[in-house]
Specification:
The complex is a heterodimer. Chain A is an alpha+beta fold. Chain A has nine helices and 20 strands. Chain B is mainly beta. Chain B has a domain of about 280 residues: Porin (Beta Barrel), CATH 2.40.160. Chain B contains six helices and 17 strands. Chain B has a 16-stranded antiparallel β-barrel with strand order 1-3-4-5-6-7-8-9-10-11-12-13-14-15-16-17. The radius of gyration of chain B is 22 Å and the shape is globular. Chain B starts with a helix and ends in a 5-residue tail after the last helix. Chain B: This is DUF5723 domain-containing protein. Chain B: Keywords: Signal. Chain B: It comes from Flagellimonas oceani.
Chain lengths: ~425, ~400
Amino acid sequence: MDRRNFLATGAVSTAGMLFFPGNLLAESAKEANKQRLTQPLPFKKNGEWKEFELYIDIKVHEPAPGFQYHTLAFNDMIPGPEIRVDYGDKVRVKFKNKTGINHTIHWHGIYVPWRMDGVPYVSQLPVMPENEFIYEFEAKPVGTHFYHCHWGTVMHMQAGMFGSIIVEDPDDPIKKQFPYEREYTLVYGAHDVNYIRNEMNRMLDRMKERNYLMKEGRFDPERWAVFNNHDQFAESIKNGWEPPYALSRRAPASLPQADWFTVNGKSYPETPYLFIKSGEKIRVRLINAGAEIHNLHLHGHDFWMVADDGIPLSHPWKRNTVPLTPGKTFDIIIEGDNRGIWTFHDHDTRKVTNNGLYPGGNLLALVYEDLPEDELIITKHSGNTMFNKGMGMEGMDMDMGKPMNMDKMLFGDDKLPKIALDE
Amino acid sequence: MNKIYVILFFALFALPGFAQLPGSEQLNREDMLPEIELGIKTVSTGNFYSNQGNASLAIPVLNEGDQVLSDFSDSYFLIGARQKLYKGWRGQMVLGFSFPDANSGLGQVFYNQVMALVENKNNIIRIGRTTSQTILGEFNTIRDDDALQYTYVLNPFSNGLNTEDNQYANVLEYTRIFGQRLYVTLHAENYQDFEEPNDYSINGLGGSIIYRQPESQLWNRKILREIGFSWNNFLLDRSDLAPNADSNETLTSFIGNATFSILPDPVHFVDFKVQGIYNDGLSTIENITDYTSYTRSRSTAAFGMLRYLNRKLERPNFQIAAGFGYKDFSNTDGNTNQYMAIGNFLYRVGNNFDLIFQYRYNKNNGALQPLLGESQHRVQIGLAYTFNKLFNSQFDGRNSLLNLEHGYIK
């Protein structure tokens, strides 16, 4: 991407609209923050079934102001909308494929019937272009889980085909032990946007050709590279289906190297805030839907680890850094016992970058709503006497004989938080 | 008028020199690595020639009798770099050389691409030496000059000893794109003048309008894949041929072309390409005595080629193509014309690695026989390997499926 453009547009829009100092704690800022959180998927009740509708389409996605790329998005959003059900609910998800390529949905961590598991050619046929598939299962077990596409998974998941599914326990032991009112779901992703672009183009291109043949009933296993048995596979190799050469028609000849890192589809400075109040406990559901490890660290706090892969821990333990590995979910409880604005980020700092530019990526912040306005004055509470009014250099005559306004020079209107887009 | 072009041309070519000014390098402490593309092609054939009639044009392969030679001409090496510019534009430079025909007078290598371009969604500006607009389509011959006399507007400044004079020029070119399919181009060129090799003034002007179906839409469309029309003018200094003529007299040609996907089938693909060239000629030339009068006579040329491509496992397997060309010189006495039949076969033995075979028969009649000989049979057998690799991919192609069908991202 063009870093210069990104910097310019990012700085202007964020400073001007989204993070204007002093407004962070206003209701309007909290409303804006809702767009950065997972969006609930409504359902219809049909007898004993809770019926949801998901579709997949190609969308131009903007993880941070000034940078866009093509993605695959459930219901036009990344991550896909959050499915929230109660333990034991009968869940029916009608899935519509609006793209020109195949997909399935795998329900990661859910005890679905085998035929609902979403693994192409193992549990089901792929959901082909303009086709539908209805998934039905019982919502078990409790906890934080997610769904994702299982076709062309390397590219499809990177492109954005994932979303959270929360199975709530009416008798939740975590809530009993750590009473909370508010909770957040953070879905982490890692994306090689160049790989996504190249591979999406290749997949779409191949499918146009294949659709042409399918309509004429001339499709064959070799072209599909899906074989009924080992003998057919061996025969195809004799017939010229040569795996080393197949690379050139099936995928880029290199593995993805993630260059964008997102939380709920957004990269800093568009990442969500976690709002908290002094004395409050919040629950944060962490989901890693990407292929990178995220060593998540919260400043100024130790948090309680309360669930692992959705399974409540009988003996919660405290940490301030956890390795969220691919496919993993953790639930943590943060106790509001240290008022301030605290960053929460991947301590593998390569992942707090946008296309290599620091800061970016999955950097976000825990924000205390009860921060007094006075504490937002950065110079007053910086701890550095040099910048402390009345104690430092303020008013000092410099060589040019003019009073130096250090606050203005360095801090603008002198309030937190700042949007740092360059080191 | 030509002086203005000289000044404009000089100014545009001199501008890149400012980048080397002392001090400017201090602004370049950190460079972004651009997209880098390598393109390499090797075409190596054994050629057999059987010629009838003596040709006055001093090209050894036109000598009467039989010959066998090794031919690696038209092999090339290209390197390009692209990056995003400010305000949604992209910039690209291409450097490259090819290997010309033996005894062409161009030396061991010919620098056919020394070019920079800038482009955005609707505009392309190209400056430098690159492929000229003397052809609209592209035919399925083994080498792109195999049917040159029928498929290109021939450079009237050339001595006829090489084909590159017709194919490449120093260009100033602007293209406006409408609807991502209609390309309207205005161009000015400096074609190589064999009599004044150090003259870089503008001696060509023209324009074209082409509807071009994006390659990624091949399976979506039927029949018409490309259709175009162009208008080319060579600004002649005619004092050598006609002392009383206006020194600014122009030689005008028109090209029309079309490509039809007769059977756009992923396994059995058939297409037909056709192009016609009308060269208005100079009315004062009534006989063809040398290569200059050959290119400046009024002529009408047509060339068509039918191709069958067999694809196996979504990649080419083999290809058979056959073409025919005819060129008539209506202002010249003695029923002067020429025609060509050409056929080739390509069999893919590995990724982009082909066994190739081509046969060509060319017949010259009337006033052309003393210049080009009577006829020629040519058989070529060999290997071709093309290699293309993009490093540090950063953005999408103009005609990618994602850009065309799912919204354009700069």
